[in-house]
Design a protein that fits this description.
564 residues; alpha/beta; Rossmann fold; 3 domains; six-stranded mixed β-sheet; 23 helices; 38% helix; binds adenosine-5'-triphosphate; transport
């Protein structure tokens, strides 16, 4: 199935200007391509033109043509498009049709009239590939964010379509499952010859397996269309605010010049010998010792246990503390209970046993409202938080609830809109925003309230590097200047390395480790237990024969922080 966009332009009815401008792009049958680009650049819109959601479900004006296998999509209907293109959507909640995980995976098979006996086997085998076989009877809506993402992946794997489109398949997946997902996509691609299109901000993770081409979008246009080696060796990623792989950042930090001939797109193909002297030199020159942590307690979690069903403990005797002014992360496998900890801190759930103290006060004595005055939480899925139609009102709502006068509300909201890169959208309805832009709105809504403890659940999911850097630098400023304590829950190891000092690792419902990030990331066996993976920074140091990998990681963290 060849895909051919010719002079293709698309404008949403709700917007004045076109979102896709004069796109000329051919994707050949059986190709595997990645689409990258800043948030709001039109990646999902391009994907939706392919799967027929545009123009059949979402209205707008198109000009030029989009042909799939020579057929203009204007002559097809939505049903015909979905029979050609299978999609894993960015917001998985909108995608579930079954009452259980098993039914959901089986849905596509029912449509294909697969016989019952085969159906059970196919569903089981597919669920096993994405580690869902234990929870086939659970409702998709009772799953953690990453588990939902796995259900969507499984659903599309059984689809009998020629083109597979993945819109941010990795956003909520833990690192190990993310790698497994990329392996699965790679197998599907090689075994079936299907055309595969992956839209993703986590470029290094996608490049875990080879791809044919990377297409870069910016403001509705295609600004690059080249091989991964060409792109990684160029300055284009940096210019367009897209994060380069960690090992490339480390090589550049050491002053190495990387060319296409070095085959830099994959760690496994990169010729490292050439760079060894520079890396060693940089490491020996830049090592500085860790700064000691502040020891005044803000939050103390004591022996916390919680079970949703009264049978299996989601959290089992978990204890940790967070000091005032710290920037800490919680890491762990999908479904290990990280978001559950957040719900217990907020008071949405009550612990079965154990307690949580804030500033020496037992939170069991405080209502949800009282807790929300001190603790701000940004949930994983922005669509679970938004309750107003207009962006300004959404961000202003918390301040207005506190009875703050309108002039102050306006000033604070404008300041935060600017900081979060949302100023030009202030009069927009939230519906007209991309997923990443919505996520930024929800972060702005909480940041404007300047909480004492800020908890960010997957802050970078769906965010491009440029926007997330702006936002995280602002969060870091809140942390450094105002002493606001920050807790992030994330599967984004690059983010965790860049910003947090200490990581709390949860595995199999229990606390597995609580240590500085450079210590955590230099222990492969520990990472493995929590479905985390070593980063390419570790692999680089290892390949260079550096003994104290924790020190090497620490050097890199210091370098990044200084050069932001
Ligand atoms: N349903 C819609 N109605 C009107 N405008 C929309 C709609 N969906 C997206 N847009 C607009 O189109 C632009 C591109 O959005 P799109 O979702 O394609 O971006 P994206 O590159 O996928 O971003 P992200 O990485 O944040 O998901 C955005 O500026 C957004 O405001
Ligand atoms: N409302 C609910 N009812 C029943 N079980 C639930 C509910 N919410 C979560 N669970 C289960 O509790 C476990 C922990 O979920 P939680 O959302 O805390 O995980 P998580 O570590 O945040 O995962 P992720 O990294 O995927 O976001 C999961 O196995 C999930 O299926």
């Amino acid at each position: 199935m060849t895909i051919e966009f010719s002079n293709f332009t698309f404008k949403y009815w709700a917007l004045e200007k076109p979102t896709l401008k004069n796109i000329n792009l051919t994707i050949g049958k059986g190709e595997k391509v990645v689409i990258v680009g800043p948030s709001g650049s039109g990646k999902s819109t391009l994907g939706q033109c392919l799967n027929g959601l545009i123009p059949f479900a979402v209205k707008g004006d198109c000009s030029g043509s989009l042909k799939i296998n020579g057929k203009d999509t204007k002559s097809l209907d939505l049903h015909q498009c979905t029979n050609i293109v299978g999609t894993v959507l960015q917001d998985t909640d909108g995608q579930f049709v079954g009452l259980s995980v098993g039914e959901d995976i089986a849905f596509a098979l029912e449509n294909q009239m697969v016989i019952q006996e085969d159906m059970h086997t196919i569903v089981k085998d597919t669920a096993k590939m994405v580690e869902l076989d234990d929870i086939l009877d659970v409702s998709p809506f009772d799953l953690s964010g990453g588990q939902k993402q796995r259900v969507s992946l499984a659903g599309v794997m059984v689809d009998d379509v020629d083109i597979l489109l993945f819109d941010e398949p990795l956003a909520s997946l833990d690192p190990k499952t993310g790698k497994a997902a990329i392996d699965i996509i790679d197998h599907l691609h090689r075994d079936t010859g299907k055309t595969v299109i992956i839209i993703e901000h986590r470029l290094e993770d996608v490049l875990h397996r080879p791809v044919d081409r990377i297409i870069m979008m910016e403001q509705g246009e295609i600004v690059a269309n080249m091989t991964p080696d060409q792109l990684i060796a160029s300055d284009l990623l940096e210019q367009h605010g897209i994060r380069e792989p960690l090992y490339i950042s480390a090589l550049k930090a050491a002053g190495c010049q990387i060319t296409e001939d070095d085959k830099p797109a994959y760690f496994s193909t990169l010729n490292l010998d050439k760079f060894k002297p520079q890396i060693e030199n940089w490491y020996h020159q830049s090592f500085v010792a860790c700064t000691p942590e502040n020891s005044e307690r803000l939050l103390t979690v004591n022996n916390l246990s919680y079970s949703y069903d009264g049978i299996k403990n989601t959290l089992d005797d978990v204890s940790f503390h967070i000091n005032k002014g710290e920037f800490v992360s919680i890491l762990g496998k999908n479904g290990s209970g990280k978001s559950t900890i957040t719900r217990l801190i907020m008071g949405v759930l009550e612990p079965d046993t154990g307690s949580i103290f804030m500033n020496g006060q037992d939170l069991a004595q405080s209502s949800i409202f009282e807790r929300s005055q001190k603790i701000g939480i940004v949930l994983q899925n922005p669509n679970h938080m938004i309750s107003h139609h207009m962006i300004f009102d959404e961000i202003a709502s918390g301040l207005r609830n506190r009875g703050i006068n309108e002039a102050t509300v306006e000033r604070k909201v404008f300041d935060i809109l600017e900081l979060c890169g949302l100023k030009k959208y202030r009069h927009w309805p939230i519906d007209a925003l991309s997923y990443g832009q919505k996520k930024r709105v929800t972060i702005a809504t909480i940041l404007v309230l300047e909480p004492e403890l800020l908890i960010l659940d997957e802050p970078t999911a769906g965010q491009d590097y440029h926007h997330y850097t702006l936002m995280m630098e602002f969060v870091r400023e809140l942390n450094r200047k105002l002493g606001i304590t920050i807790l992030i829950i994330s599967h984004d190891m690059h983010l965790v390395l860049e910003y947090t000092q200490r990581a709390i690792v949860i595995a199999n419902s229990q606390l597995l480790a609580d240590a500085p990030v450079n210590t955590i990331f230099s222990q492969p066996a520990l990472l493995e237990k929590a479905n985390l993976t070593v980063t390419s920074l570790y692999s680089l140091a290892h390949a260079m024969g550096i003994e104290r990998i924790d020190n090497f990681i620490h050097c890199f963290i210091e370098h990044e922080a200084k050069n932001k």
